[in-house]
């Protein structure tokens, strides 16, 4: 099928492009830059000029496609609430172009949206419309489209990693460099889920091909890695001491990341694996952190 892919030159999108092409799909990738256009052409994809802010360009791209995968997101987490609202508008625009058809649309959310509370792993069957995380805006926008008859499903992301980037861990590396220590909060027992980039890209393809309205998938290869173990891996890589930071010191030390560092975000992908036959095979998060280059 002809797939319109937002975020096609980003960290995740650039892995989804070859995954789709290898499976015989045609990819139309959205980009705002000449460099992005060149990269898409070199990869074998078609180019669609547009931005997340330009809802008309989003509609045009979706209108000409057999299916849509939306992975673009503004990752300036210091403006997280604003960027979640931007994503809501983008999802609404993309979906409006699919009205009256059964063409599949895959949107992106976070595994935390499936939290069961009380330290239990997040699961695919949980949808809490009143979830306090601003990223719920994406799934609420998707729910509205579902109720309009759009064939929409959701891929929920953990910390997506390879040896170049690792989700929220990448800004933790910058903070560690700035502060001269690799830190974790309290005892460091809270856990973050993870998924290798290539496993995640494969999941997007499988979700598109399955095209099940209302389905939610957790792109999780590892249910949870303790934050202390992550900080220790960063300490080894950066040759920095590893320290505990108290909750009272969190804002001063971590800045905007303070809202995330103490979260217990473990998540299961058992239902996803059973439904799609998706079985993660990529390296673990700690393996990638241990193998990466920390040279600036």
How would you describe what is shown here?
- Helix 4 (80-96) packs parallel to helix 5.
- The chain is built from 12 helices and 12 strands.
- The strands form 3 sheets. It has a 7-stranded parallel beta sheet with strand order 3-2-1-4-5-6-10, with helices on both faces.
- It is α/β, with parallel strands linked by helices.
- The radius of gyration is 19 Å and the shape is globular.
- It has helices at 13-22, 34-43, 55-63, 80-96, 136-147, 169-179, 197-210, 227-238, 250-254, 258-261, 270-276, 285-291; strands at residues 2-6, 26-31, 46-49, 67-70, 104-110, 151-157, 159-161, 182-185, 191-196, 216-218, 222-226, 242-245.
State which percent range the strand residues make up.
15-25%
Helix % is 25-40%
Biggest sheet: strand arrangement: 3-2-1-4-5-6-10
* Biggest β-sheet description: 7 strands, parallel
Radius of gyration: 19 Å
* Alpha carbon gap, first and last residue: 41 Å
- Silhouette: globular
Counted by DSSP, the helix tally is: 12
Q: Compute the number of strand runs.
A: 12
């Amino acid at each position: 099928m002809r797939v319109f892919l937002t975020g096609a030159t980003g960290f995740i999108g650039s892995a989804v492009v070859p995954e789709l092409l290898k499976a015989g799909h045609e990819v139309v990738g959205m980009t705002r830059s000449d460099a992005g256009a060149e990269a898409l052409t070199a990869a074998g994809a078609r180019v669609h000029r547009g931005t997340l802010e330009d809802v008309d360009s989003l509609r045009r791209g979706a209108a000409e496609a057999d299916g849509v995968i939306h992975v673009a997101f503004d990752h300036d987490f210091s403006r997280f609430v604003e960027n979640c609202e931007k994503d809501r508008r983008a999802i609404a625009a993309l979906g409006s172009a699919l009205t009256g058809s059964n063409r599949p649309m895959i949107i992106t959310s976070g595994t935390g949206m499936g939290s069961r509370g009380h330290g239990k792993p997040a699961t695919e069957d949980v949808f809490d419309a009143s979830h306090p995380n601003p990223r719920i805006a994406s799934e609420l926008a998707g729910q509205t489209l579902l109720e309009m008859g759009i064939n929409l499903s959701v891929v929920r992301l953990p910390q997506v990693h390879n040896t170049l980037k690792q989700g929220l861990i990448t800004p933790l590396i910058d903070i560690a460099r700035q502060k001269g220590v690799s830190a974790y909060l309290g005892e460091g027992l809270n856990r973050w889920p993870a998924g290798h980039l290539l496993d995640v890209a494969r999941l997007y393809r499988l979700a598109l091909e399955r095209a099940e309205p209302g389905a939610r998938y957790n792109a999780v290869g590892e249910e949870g890695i303790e934050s202390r173990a992550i900080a220790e891996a960063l300490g080894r890589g950066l040759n920095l001491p590893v320290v505990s930071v108290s909750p009272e010191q969190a804002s001063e030390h971590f800045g905007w990341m303070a809202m995330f560092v103490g979260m217990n975000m473990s998540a299961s992908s058992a239902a996803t694996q059973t439904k799609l036959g998706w079985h993660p095979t990529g390296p673990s998060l700690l393996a990638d952190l241990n193998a990466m280059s920390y040279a600036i």
